[in-house]
Amino acid sequence: MLRYWETEFPQLRPDKGRSGQRLYKKKDLQHILQIKDLLYKEGYTISGARKKLNGKGDQDIAVIIESAKKELREILQMLK
Length: 80
Description:
Mean pLDDT: 88
Strand order of the largest sheet: 1-2
CATH topology: Multidrug-efflux Transporter Regulator, Chain: A, Domain 2
Distance between the termini: 57 Å
Number of strands: 2
Number of domains: 1
CATH architecture: Orthogonal Bundle
Radius of gyration: 19 Å
CATH class: Mainly Alpha
């Protein structure tokens, strides 16, 4: 599973020792736990989790909220 995640998430790039073994640092472990939570607890897809980790997931939500606000203001103007 970890090797697959390494191919899917650019944030997860552990160093390799001389023998080729992966050497996970604290930041790598934090990324692994965050990915695990997004996929298994919050129900994200691989693609969705990747966007969320890149910060695009939050940006998408902000764009949707602003668009909804704009539409609601337009509706309010029509009702006046």
